[in-house]
Amino acid sequence: MVVEVVYAQAWDPEACVPWRPMSAEGARQRDAAGLPYVVAYRESGRKAPLEVRLVSWQDHYVGLWVYDAQGRRTYDLDMRLLDDPSRLLRRYSVAWYYTDPEMAEFDKACPRITVDLFPDGRGRRTEERQGQDGGSHVTSPRHRDDERWLDRPAFGEWPLFSAQVHGFIEQPAFEVAETAEPGDGGAPATCWRPPRPAQAGPINELFRPGVRVTDGYHPEMTVVEPRRVGTLRVPSGLLAVSGPDIDQGDGPRITVPVPPGEYVLDEARVRFSYHCEWRDAEIVTTQPTAVRLLVSETPAATWGMALGPDDDPRLFIEQQIAGFDTAGATGCFADGGAWEPLVALFERGMSRGESDLDGGEDIDDGSMFMLRTWDEASGGELMSFATTGDGTYPVWVGRSEAGEVIGVVVLVEGMPDLLPERDGLPTDAAV
Question: For the whole model, what pTM was predicted?
């Protein structure tokens, strides 16, 4: 059995074709330089590829996509190159089990199994079922070391991983398709790119009055003036952003170095109208979208997701987030140097309901901020705020062109989408 091998700069998943095919030598050079490229394996007479390998060593990434005869992806495998250059972690995989030849690719009704694996032995297997019962079943995968890791093949020596899936009893012989070298220029937006963690979105615009946004449910919302709630003293120069309601035996989840000082706390807000059925009237209301600790009035040039001590960007899959966890819909900004006494005061104020708490005060003004505590010994303070639910909340750090911290923001809900300005021109979005 002979399988044709096509090297290319990129892969277009919508058209299911390689973009700008190249020679094996051209791909070898990109491999050595760590640049992205793809390898498609095709069988004569078959329209869809057998599988596609997507490589970007500079992103510590190798992907594998397996296709069926209908051109539907049936298996995705995300592999990561970590500290040992001789092997790859089988980081993440999804297998789709189409129940009908006519079922669309990635149909929501299609049963699937997702496996998350980590280098320390942790993992999670999620089976999403089809039928009247539906639902999902989550277990801890029991993988041997050789199932969790793959020896890294040399360039040109990769096997056809899907050989058994396609009914090949033995590994086929490979025939490389020689092509002319491609021209310059970036790949179209529809082409594959290495996975990226979640991106900040236009955070600056949430604090810019007059900007129009939508959350997908309300068709038009207008940003109004940010609401200043108070200030926070951070004499240690280490800002903590965390969930004060989670076991904090190891300290706060996220910390951000800032110059020692006292900083403004404010809320981003939007105004919108909606039809209230039980009043049978149009109601105008204002709601917060984000909370911010403002370090400088200068608009941030960039926004990046803050990482915790155990977060390894090399392991992030597409749109993955890092941040603080909460089981009580609560986050906080605090002086990291006085974390333990500040959280102890918070727990007394919230769990025991001590309204006359010495070293704390309720914030009862309708804002997302709820309770302030302060440590008399250090002068550090904590200000807790409400989120819209439990789970993990990213912490976004805005920086100037010189890399200085401008502000720290937590979205209390997801990032809304920008709407065009009234004159028809698109709103300028910050990075």
Answer: 0.88
